[in-house]
Design brief:
90 residues, mainly alpha, 2 helices
Length: 90
């Protein structure tokens, strides 16, 4: 009988790093969608704009994107530092 090939598994650290990189690449698209939400919402039957609520939403989304970018950058830099330590490079 023929031998089964060994299953191909990615190392857990490299798999997580790739998923973090994918999330970092997707963050601007998510930001664009978040900023377009107020434009997509149907206005009330009045002609007045909901400026206060829209402004709060935009700044909350902006703050959330900043926090997400910070967390992703810390996680990605931590992975780079661990790889440098493991390889013995400076």
């Amino acid at each position: 009988m023929s031998e089964r090939p060994a299953p191909v598994f990615l190392e857990r650290r490299s798999y997580r790093r790739r998923r973090l990189t994918d999330a970092a690449r997707l963050l601007p698209v998510v930001g664009l969608l978040l900023f377009l939400v107020p434009l997509l919402l149907a206005p009330d039957k009045t002609d007045t704009a909901r400026t206060a609520g829209t402004s709060i939403y935009v700044f909350a989304a902006w703050f959330g994107l900043i926090v997400c970018a910070f967390v992703l950058s810390r996680a990605l830099s931590r992975g780079t530092d661990a790889a440098k330590d493991r390889d013995g490079a400076e």
